[in-house]
Amino acid sequence: DHEGIVWDEFAGIWITFWLVPAGWHWLLLGFVVFRVLDIVKPWPLSWIDRNVTGGLGIMLDDILAGFAACGLVHLVVLTFG
User: Which residue spans within the chain are E strands per DSSP?
Assistant: First the structure.
C-alpha cells in the first residue's frame, strides 16, 4: 500500500476493538493481534493482498484482518476474561 493511505489501518483497528471490554490489556492485545495479522497476512489475507487491486484491495485485507483480530480477542476474553 502507498504510505500515505492510512484509512485501511484505522478501519481495521476500529473493527478489532468492536465490543472489546474496557481495559488497557485488551486494547494492547487487540492492537498486537491486528498488527501481526496485517504484517504476516495469513491466507486468505495474502491472497486478497495479491489479487484484489485498487482501493478495494487496499481496504479489504485490513478490514478482514480486523474481523479476524476481533474474533481472536473475543475468544481470549471468553477464555481468560
Answer: none
For residue 27 the three cell numbers come to 486494547
Maximum distance among all Cα pairs of the chain, rounded to whole angstroms: 40
Rounded Cα distance, 20 and 2, in Å: 30
Cα angle vertex 73, ends 34, 38, to 5°?
A: 15
Can you spell out the DSSP letters for 4-56? Answer: T--HHHHHHHHHHTTTPPSSHHHHHHHHHHHHHHHHH--TTHHHHHHH--HHH
Residues 54, 25: Cα–Cα separation, whole Å: 35
pLDDT tens, residue by residue, 30-67: 999 999 999 999 999 999 999 999 989 889 999 999 99
Distance, CA of 77 to CA of 9 (rounded, Å): 23
